[in-house]
Write a structure and sequence with these properties.
Chain B: This is Cell cycle control protein. Chain B: It holds the Pfam family CDC50. Chain B: Belongs to the CDC50/LEM3 family. Chain B: InterPro entries: CDC50/LEM3_fam (IPR005045). The complex is a heterodimer of chains A (1223) and B (346). Chain A has 1223 residues and is α+β, with helices and mostly antiparallel strands. In chain A, 44% of the residues lie in helices and 16% in strands. Chain A has 41 helices and 36 strands. Chain A has a 9-stranded mixed β-sheet with strand order 16-35-34-33-17-29-32-31-30, with helices on both faces. Chain B folds into 2 domains: 55 residues; 241 residues, no CATH class. In chain B, a hairpin with a 5-residue loop joins strand 6 and strand 7. The chains are: A alpha+beta (1223), B alpha+beta (346). Chains A and B meet through helix 12, helix 32, helix 33, strand 36 and helix 35 of A and strand 1, helix 1, helix 3, helix 4 and helix 6 of B.
Chain lengths: 1223, 346
């Protein structure tokens, strides 16, 4: 739709993409825009246009109306959409989510319908119908019906089990409870009963059940803290704040019950961070934005309870809208298999046609004149040929293998169980085994090219720990005992002397503790004091336990560290902060908080000590701190070196510094500060300027190093996967610096990696586009696409790109509404034509651009996309899928990964964590990232190889088996005969034989066909030669067709089973048992079916009575069988031996040298190269949030005052409850 | 893994060898020594087997006389529909140069007779043949019932087209003395056929039995089923050996079926002595209409059947090829072994 933009310059009219923000425009797809407004007739539209253009762009979209506490309102007829014929449904979804496919009534018809969508099933249905026609029925009806029923039954049972699991999961979620106002009181209700317009109450640590408008909460100003890890992967707390009016009047149950606000807002969409709407209440309208909305999937934290009004429920919620479609995934081999089946089908038709023509000819020549073949009907030879064509289609149906699909499913099921059973993918800490949630994708695991990984919770544990520090030029944090000696014995520091320690910090440097306790170096104490005082963390004291709530996990880690080292932050008010300094509580006056933002990359706090001194404490990124240091800083260089060392260890660093401020200086500065903070325009800039004035001449204290703890074994896994030529892309909603740091930590990036950022890529792509356009012109279509690389060969490159740049590069920018409107209804034909033309041109350009981008990205050894939305994650996966035609795997843990997990060929969810969304939509789940290597390199490879081996063998066997009929046709006047149902009845062995451990190479489908054809010839012609002349030992009835069938069948069973034996690389007793077992089973069943007893019971069904015993009594039949088997197998052995001798494959070689290789295979961690001072990256500063809570703190809004507990409010509805301190 | 927290490992997995895919394995190595050993051994076995088979096949004697053309006048007579009930006999003299020792078997052999045609092969009723229900003729199309709706016994196309020539072998000691060579019409079939698959209605008088039931003789048959062997009343009905032999359908359009065994008594105690013989054939079975041929075969047997050389030759050829292949493989192996030592030093 986004036409008119083909004049490329329009892209650049906006400023550079912002690396800091998550773009949000990615969801506004063209379809959505097309849908809207299309109902408006053109005339009306033209009238409205001018007015609309002047209005605020989003206002007119507000067609979603919600009335509080009025369920009837939403059931009005004009909210009804016709769903199916005359069944109407409200446009307001209810809150029950539905992921299941069938219910009790729809299961059988829907499932059958689904199954018959498969070509093979349909084919067999057709076959069954054909068999009902008596003239052409060549096989008993049950020979097709039974396998078909088995296939349908097995698949149906599998689907049923899957669906029951989904039902259970849905039920579990739908039956979660929360409190809803009903009949004027809060009552416990299930999630599924919640409807739009309900007022609900949530308690601490509850999941939010729907998208709700925050009305009020237990916190001052109706603040509400939420954790959005499920939505965007960020674990820091975010705060939401209700409207002042609702905060004021909607605290009590009775007022909430009578709340009759009316909300008009945008239709449901998937923009997680955008919301526009208006609340109409008490004859006033209040604008609503995303800050007042709690989204489904969030968790309420640090807030005792809150009240909200449901705006979107169930499927309308933003998280659900974001989850993308559930795609039906199929593997490459599935497609290949289908392709082969079609090929076989064509071959079958050709064969049948050939045989039918042959039969018609034979009829004309011989059959018609043979009196003994008189069948009472005067059909012409050509008609007989026509009938026999269908007859052959039926007889040769085994060529199109129905059992193939069943066998493949069974094998995959088995493989899935092996995954489920794998102890090495069981995570004991969380008691979580790996789980194959879909059973149809296993062999695809062996074909992965690209892995798309989430960062938070997937690569990292999402735990920040204080690891090291540098104080006054001295590095602390390595193992050391108190006397400053490195020590082999690793012993944790004992924090028990400190009453406030939480005991969770693992620290090994005993010397630091000694320093703190002795107080020899005042800087050490000051260092931790700074950590305790300079932050915007909130504290919550329950049962004497301190709970810190930080805006970023790094900050939390620092404050927590300070607390463990004896400087515990105890409480804060609007302008004081209380610290326990090694046991003595002291309260400081906070004079100003100079908050963090991404430009400043630092935060400062100005406090007045109880002694009356004014001090400024500051922490921030080294780059910004070093610019502001006092010239005379003796430890500057040492700290710098320490920072390099920390950065090399991929720790996240912060510099700490302080300065003392004269009273006079402060008073002066404070005036400016006050003036700036009330400035009406450009307040932020003014403040930044004022902050700058005081943050100078700082004295460096030291630096901290925080570890964003990776999950165990992540670098090893990544290196292993890289060796398998699997590329790993990290897609995260987190900040660029953080992502980059993690890239280094997990060794995706190394010191010698050249990193390209958005700008570089953009210019490269521009140049490429320019090139392509120049080269294009008239000959563009004829010239073969030149694939030159973007980068010079050699060297290690990585790409770090943010979501905004991604949008910029891929032309996914937001479409301007007014342009759309203008273009919606073209006035003239000319305009319409122009429009379609430019649209097409834009499409082509977009595609070219996407392709270029993917090519470029794939040239890099690592790609990190940060600040991307869930939808962008999916888009990136889709791009690679589309343009690289590669098999992709996405792995993630949160709801923000759901879309990408669904998009990728294989989705993996990290289980064992709180949110289940990712796991629910994944194909495989396990608890740790490192299990990925086992899943891919072991299970994937095995599954793949086994599957391929199986397929090759299967086609071979099938052809060997079926073509025997074909050869026989030449000797029986091209008429179908009934050897096959006897054979197939006697062939269970072929389908149960060891389907494990079959190492093979799949690409040679035709080789196996050829092999099958040759084997079938051997199987047929050797017995034929033997039978033509010979007679039985006793002279009786030789060469009857039943003995012939038994001979061939026995030879066939023995040959194909031995063939499996040859193909089996690793013999276990299971293999031996199944191979010899199936041969034994074959003979057992045969003798059984040929016994006298069974003939007496069913004389017409079992006609082979005595054949086996009589035929196999003859030595020449055994000799024939032995010769056939030998001739069938010896060439295979010879070829295999020769190919191993002449062209040994990789795995042959590995087998030969397995002992030596074993040692080499050990993963060797890259040598850590320390290069002091040359490190180019150091700004991995430890702030992952945008902005601290300084505003909240200094405005005093968040500071909790005494208030009645929840019970009191609930119980005593009439008690006057007014908040006392509302600043 | 070694240090597991003991709280609740409810989902702890089973550590069995099967589930962990750690079953003891044996790898199948195609090492030179093994492969070559197998090839040489197979080669020797095949060669020996081939020589033994050829020798034993050559030790048998066989005489085949195609009487399609010799008895052409009978065939012509028969082609005229008006003469269908006229009996035509035809005598074929031949000279046996050496004596045929041991058991001698007599076969009739048909060429171009498609007994394996699908519709033909299915046109029989095993339920009828097992003697349970004469009326069970469902599978017998198109020879199920006669026009007056009585079931045909035995029904079906196979039974209808039963071979009905009579062949009598006589030994001409001199121009005047002719001895009929005694032939046994018993034990021509498999035991299971005679005693399981084919049963008469009951052991009482056969003719009465069949007469008691309303039935029709197959269109091509001159006489009813209970009258097939006039000499031996027990060799009648469904239990007639010729009938059973015919009902076991052949696999190929060219086939021979056992007609009789030499009764080794008196003059023929050692087999057939050399001399002049003749076949006296009552010509009933028409083959010229479908361009078929028929012949009569006399043969002796060994442990591996008749005088077919195919298996012997096939074994010999296979053996030779295997040896050739193993020499070639050895050569390649030695060549490459010297070049790339590393592959084979295990």
């Amino acid at each position: 739709m986004s036409t008119e933009r083909d004049s490329e310059t329009t892209f650049d009219e906006d400023s550079q993409p912002n690396d800091e923000v998550v773009p949000y425009s990615d969801d506004e797809t063209e379809d959505e825009l097309d849908d809207q407004g299309s109902a408006v007739e053109p005339e009306q539209n033209r009238v409205n246009r001018e007015a609309e253009e002047n209005r605020e762009p989003f206002r007119k979209e507000c067609t979603w109306q919600v009335k509080a506490n009025d369920r009837k309102y939403h059931e009005q007829p004009h909210f009804m959409n016709t769903k199916f014929l005359c069944i109407k449904e409200s446009k307001y979804a209810n809150n029950a989510i539905k992921t299941y496919k069938y219910n009790a009534f729809t299961f059988i018809p829907m499932n059958l319908f689904e199954q018959f969508k498969r070509a093979a099933n349909l084919y067999f249905l057709a076959l069954l119908i054909l068999q009902a026609v008596p003239q052409i029925s060549t096989l008993a009806w049950y020979t097709t019906l039974v396998p078909l029923l088995v296939v349908l039954g097995v698949t149906a049972i599998k689907d049923l089990v899957d669906d029951v699991a989904r039902h259970k999961m849905d039920k579990e979620i739908n039956n979660r409870t929360c409190e809803v106002i009903k009949d004027g009181r809060f009552k416990v209700a299930k999630w599924k009963e919640i409807q739009v317009g309900d007022v609900i109450r949530l308690k601490k640590n509850d999941f939010v059940p729907a998208d709700i408008l925050l009305l009020s909460s237990s916190e001052p100003n109706s603040l509400c803290y939420v954790e959005t890890a499920e939505l965007d992967g960020e674990t820091n707390l975010k705060f939401k704040m209700s409207l002042e009016i609702t905060d004021q009047y909607l605290q009590r149950e009775d007022t909430l019950a009578t709340f009759d606000g009316f909300i008009e807002c945008e239709e449901p969409n998937n923009r997680l961070d955008k919301f526009t709407g208006t609340l109409f209440w008490r004859n006033t309208s209040f604008p609503l934005d995303a800050d007042k909305i709690l989204l489904r999937g969030c968790v309420i934290r640090n807030t005792d309870f809150c009240h909200g009004l449901v705006i979107f429920a169930g499927a309308d919620t933003k998280i659900m809208k974001n989850s993308g479609k559930t795609r039906f995934k199929r593997t490459k081999i599935d497609y290949l298999m289908n392709y082969m089946v079609y090929t076989i089908f064509v071959v079958l038709i050709l064969l049948s046609a050939g045989l039918a023509i042959g039969h018609a000819y034979w009829e004309a020549q011989v059959g018609n004149s043979s009196w003994y073949l008189y069948d009472g009907e005067d059909d012409t030879p050509s008609y007989r040929g026509f009938l026999i064509f269908w007859g052959y289609i039926i007889v040769l149906n085994t060529m199109v293998p129905i059992s193939l699909y069943v066998s493949v499913e069974v094998i995959r099921l088995g493989q899935s169980h092996f995954i489920n059973w794998d102890l090495q993918m069981y995570y004991a800490e969380k008691d979580t085994p790996a789980k194959a949630r879909t059973t149809t994708l296993n062999e695809q695991l062996g074909q992965i090219h690209y892995i798309f990984s989430d960062k938070t919770g997937t690569l990292t544990q999402n735990i920040m720990t204080f690891k090291k520090c540098c104080i006054n030029g001295q590095i602390y944090g390595d193992h050391r005992d108190a006397s400053q000696h490195n020590h082999n014995k690793i012993e944790q520091v004992d924090f028990s002397w400190n009453t406030y320690a939480d005991g969770k910090l693992a620290f090994y440097d005993h010397y630091l503790i000694e320093q703190i306790q002795s107080g020899k170096e005042p800087e050490v104490r000051q260092f931790f004091f700074l950590l305790a005082v300079c932050h915007t963390v909130m504290v919550d004291r329950t049962d004497g336990q301190l709970n810190y709530q930080a805006a970023s996990p790094d900050e939390g880690a620092l404050v927590n560290a300070a607390r463990n080292f004896g400087f515990a932050f105890l409480a804060r008010t609007q302008n004081t902060i209380t610290i326990s300094e090694l046991g003595t509580e002291r309260t400081y006056n906070v004079l100003a908080i100079l908050d963090f933002n991404s430009d400043r990359k630092r935060m400062s706090i100005i406090v007045r000590t109880p002694e009356g001194n004014i001090k400024l404490y500051c922490k921030g990124a080294d780059t910004v701190i070093y610019e502001r240091l006092h010239r005379m800083n003796p430890t500057k260089q040492e700290t710098q070196d320490a920072l390099d060392i920390f950065a090399n260890e991929t720790l996240r660093t912060l510099c700490l510094c302080y300065k003392e401020i004269e009273e006079k200086e402060f008073t002066e500065w404070n005036k400016k500060f006050m003036a700036a903070s009330v400035a009406s325009t450009n307040r932020d800039e003014a403040l930044d300027k004022v902050y700058e004035e005081i943050e100078k001449d700082l004295i460096l204290l030291g630096a901290t190093a925080i570890e964003d703890k990776l999950q165990d074994g992540v670098p090893e896994t990544i290196s292993k996967l890289a060796k398998a030529d699997i590329k790993i892309w990290v897609l995260t909603g987190d900040k660029k610096e953080t992502a980059e740091n993690i890239g280094f930590a997990c060794e995706l990036l190394t010191e010698d990696t050249t990193i390209c950022y958005g700008e570089d890529i953009n210019s490269l792509l521009h140049a490429r586009m320019e090139n392509q356009r120049n080269r294009g012109g008239v000959y563009a279509k004829f010239a073969p696409p030149v694939q030159e690389s973007f980068f010079p060969p050699g060297g290690n490159r990585a790409l770090i790109i943010t979501g905004s740049w991604l949008n910029e590069i891929l032309l996914e920018k937001k479409t301007k509404r007014n342009k759309i409107l203008k273009l919606k209804f073209p006035r003239t034909e000319e305009e319409r034509r122009m429009r379609t033309q430019s649209k097409r041109r834009l499409e082509a350009k977009k595609e070219q651009r996407q392709k270029n981008f993917v090519d470029l990205a794939c040239e890099c050894s690592a790609v990190i996309c940060c600040r991307v939305t869930p939808k962008q994650k999916a888009m990136v996966v889709d791009l690679v899928k589309r343009y690289k035609k590669a098999i992709t795997l996405a792995i993630g843990d949160g709801a923000n990964d759901v879309n990408m997990i669904k998009t990728a060929h294989i989705g993996v969810g990290i289980s064992g964590q709180e949110g289940m969304q990712a796991v629910m939509s994944s194909d495989y789940s396990f608890a740790q990232f490192r299990y990925l290597q086992r899943l891919l390199l072991v299970h994937g490879r095995w599954s793949y190889i086994r599957m391929c081996k199986f397929l090759r063998y299967f086609f071979y066997k099938n052809f060997a088996f079926t073509l025997v009929h074909f050869w026989y046709s030449f000797f029986n006047g091209y008429s179908a005969q009934d050897v096959s149902d006897k054979l197939s009845l006697r062939f269970p062995g072929l389908y149960i034989v060891g389907q494990r451990d079959l190492l093979f190479n799949y690409k040679r489908f035709f080789v196996s066909l050829l092999h099958g054809v040759l084997t079938s010839m051997i199987l047929f012609f050797i017995p034929l030669g033997a039978y033509l002349q010979t007679v039985g030992q006793d002279g009786e009835a030789p060469s009857d067709y039943q003995s012939f069938a038994v001979t061939i069948a026995s030879a066939l069973v023995i040959t194909v089973n031995f063939q499996i034996g040859l193909d089996t690389s690793y013999w276990t007793f299971v293999n031996a048992f199944s191979i010899f077992g199936s041969i034994a089973l074959y003979f057992g069943i045969m003798f059984d079916f040929h016994s006298a007893g069974i003939h007496v019971l069913f004389p017409s069904a079992f006609q082979f009575t005595g054949t086996a015993s009589n035929a196999l009594r003859q030595p020449y039949i055994w000799l024939t069988i032995i010769l056939t088997v030998a001739v069938g197998l010896l060439p295979v052995v010879a070829i295999r031996f020769l190919s191993m001798t002449i062209w040994p494959s990789e795995s042959d070689k590995i087998q030969k040298h397995r002992k030596r290789l074993k040692a080499e295979e050990q993963w060797q961690r890259r040598q850590q190269v320390f290069r002091r001072g040359v490190s180019t990256r150091r700004s991995a500063y430890a702030f992952s949030h945008q902005r601290g809570y300084a505003d909240l703190i200094s405005s005093g809004r968040s500071i909790r005052k005494k208030r009645s507990p929840l019970d009191a409010i609930v119980a005593d509805g009439t008690a006057e409850y007014r908040r006392t301190g509302d600043s | 893994m070694e240090e597991r927290p003991q709280h609740c490992l409810s989902r702890l997995l089973d550590n069995s060898a099967l589930k962990q895919q750690e079953l003891p394995i044996h790898r199948l190595y195609f090492t030179a020594r093994r492969v070559l050993f197998v090839f040489f051994a197979t080669g020797i076995f095949c060669l020996c087997m081939g020589i033994i088979l050829i020798l034993s096949a050559r030790s048998t004697q066989e005489i085949e006389i195609n009487y399609t053309r010799i008895c052409a006048n009978c065939a012509k007579l028969q082609e005229n529909a008006s003469n269908f009930d006229k009996e035509c006999t035809c005598s074929i003299p031949f000279y046996l140069s050496g004596k045929m020792m041991g058991n001698v078997y007599m076969y009739y052999k048909l060429y171009g007779f498609y007994q394996n045609l699908y519709l033909y092969i299915r046109s029989r009723s095993n339920r009828q043949l097992v003697g349970k229900d004469v009326k069970a003729v469902e599978d017998c199309a198109p020879f199920k019932m006669s026009d007056n709706k009585t079931p045909i016994v035995p029904c079906g196309a196979i039974a209808n087209s039963m071979f009905n020539d009579t062949i009598i072998l006589s030994h001409n000691i001199n121009s005047s003395v002719q001895i009929k060579v005694p032939m046994l019409k018993s034990r021509l079939t498999w035991w299971t056929d005679k005693y399981v698959k084919f049963q008469n209605l009951s052991s009482k008088n056969l003719a009465d039995e069949f007469r008691g039931k309303i039935h029709t003789v197959p269109p091509n048959w001159p006489k009813p089923i209970y009258d097939l062997d006039k000499k031996d009343p027990r060799n009648n009905g469904f239990l007639n050996d010729d009938f059973i032999v015919w009902m076991r359908a052949a696999a190929f359009p060219t086939f021979k079926k056992l007609y009789g065994r030499l009764n080794r008594t008196h003059h023929f105690i050692e087999g057939l002595p050399a001399g002049n013989y003749s076949f006296n054939i009552t010509y009933n079975f028409p083959v010229t209409r479908f361009h078929g041929e028929k012949s009569v075969v006399l043969s002796t047997l060994t442990w591996c059947g008749g005088n077919s050389l195919f298996l012997g030759l096939a074994y010999t050829v296979t053996g030779a090829m295997t040896w050739l292949a193993s020499f070639a493989m050895m050569a390649i192996h030695i060549m490459l072994k010297n070049k790339k030592m590393s592959f084979f030093h295990q």
